[in-house]
């Protein structure tokens, strides 16, 4: 240790003018080192006690059928979504990076499922951030049998779903937004979110027919970017944030024999596009057509506020949506190819329209 080395050295004194007293350099160094060592000792003692308190939350898995493990092993995405109704449901974040981004966004953890070897390595910081939540643990093979798949980096975290904002709230200060119409594949939804976050989109809106961005696969494919870019569903409640009025309208609709699906179909594209226009947005439908313009058209790029709309896998956008939009936009193709996968097309479109021409 450095203190032992210092103590073995003969004192070295530096003397200057008569007005300045001699300075014992070794003595000062020893005192400074002693203070540092004492401070480190206190820190280690504090963090050791803190860590021991956190370790009391660790629960070794001995019963695969324990109800606390249902959210990881047996509940479907739909069950997780509705588990706490009328309160917000639960979603599962997978991998340390995704969990960290969810925590950064303010998501509240419920419990953690973790491979034992990660407790004091890559999972240590997450455990500290999650506080006094249960941490279920076992070896990798046991967790694979429990969940039915190999965990990405050996870690899952159940979290409460955040409350979704209204459409006006997330679009008010935005200039470029993406709208997904009935994109049902969670892999595509996750990939689109990752591109939107990376390529200058300010927000993402989804119609009610889309896969939920907080489904486990969508979250994983997005690498947690679903927590980094504002998003919400375009539905009756999020278009009209007056919950009482929405409830009254819903009751009237039920009394008239109108289904919730009928209500949501009436919301998009009509009400949704009207709201966007009232906020100053021009709308661009990604679709093939005789009157479509190139994605790099200067008129398109010079729009101050633009919403780019992408359609479902296979069928693309509905005719009604295309007819309601200000532009129909396409990506030039070669070798006889007429279209791209919606996730690939989104990346090209976001990169292009993200370059705003002033």
Structure overview:
- The protein is of the alpha/beta class.
- It folds into two domains: 67-160, Ribosomal protein L30/S12 (60s Ribosomal Protein L30, Chain: A, 2-Layer Sandwich); 167-353, Alpha/beta knot (3-Layer(aba) Sandwich).
- Helix content is 43%, strand content 16%.
- It is built from 16 helices and 14 strands.
- It has helices spanning 2-8, 25-55, 70-73, 77-82, 96-104, 124-130, 140-147, 167-171, 186-198, 216-221, 236-239, 243-255, 260-278, 298-301, 319-324, 342-353; strands at residues 13-14, 23-24, 58-60, 90-94, 109-115, 135-138, 155-160, 176-180, 203-207, 231-234, 282-286, 293-294, 306-310, 327-330.
- The strands form three sheets. A seven-stranded parallel sheet has the order 10-9-8-13-11-14-12. A five-stranded mixed sheet has the order 3-6-5-7-4.
- Helix 1 runs antiparallel to helix 2 and helix 9 (186-198) packs parallel to helix 16 (342-353).
- Residues 1-21 and 241-249 have low confidence and may be disordered.
Record the SSE blueprint.
Layout (H helix, E strand, L loop, with lengths): L1 H7 L4 E2 L8 E2 H31 L2 E3 L9 H4 L3 H6 L7 E5 L1 H9 L4 E7 L8 H7 L4 E4 L1 H8 L7 E6 L6 H5 L4 E5 L5 H13 L4 E5 L8 H6 L9 E4 L1 H4 L3 H13 L4 H19 L3 E5 L6 E2 L3 H4 L4 E5 L8 H6 L2 E4 L11 H12 L5
Parallel strand pairs: 3-6, 5-6, 8-9, 8-13, 9-10, 11-13, 11-14, 12-14
Antiparallel strand pairs: 1-2, 4-7, 5-7
Helix pairs in contact: 1-2, 9-16
